[in-house]
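Here is the promised in-class demo. Please do not try to memorize the tokens; focus on the logic of going from shape to residues.
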């Protein structure tokens, strides 16, 4: 009986570690891709959405990337669901940078 309770407790802890790791890895990959998109938009190289989507390194669904421009600022926001763990809110990352041609 004690062994069954101990096994259950160990499995719960392992499940929590896997869930937290999945969220962290997904958010890390998303933030890296959003940074790449913001960098591309900042220098006027290409579409921020295309650059961010290409830089996203995790499998699963592609991130939803949005770009907002105001004056000399660019804000790139990305969201993506955490793969394999239903019920968790999507990972989200936002990067704001300046347009390089707007720098005197």
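The designed amino acids, position by position:
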């Amino acid at each position: 009986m004690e062994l069954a309770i101990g096994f259950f407790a160990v499995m719960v802890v392992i499940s929590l570690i896997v869930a937290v790791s999945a969220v962290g890895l997904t958010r890390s990959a998303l933030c890296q891709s959003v940074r790449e998109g913001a960098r591309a938009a900042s220098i006027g190289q290409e579409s921020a959405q295309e650059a961010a989507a290409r830089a996203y390194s995790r499998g699963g669904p592609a991130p939803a990337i949005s770009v907002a421009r105001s004056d000399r600022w660019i804000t790139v926001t990305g969201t993506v669901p955490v793969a394999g763990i239903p019920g968790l809110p999507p990972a989200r990352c936002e990067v704001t940078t300046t347009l390089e041609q707007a720098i005197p």
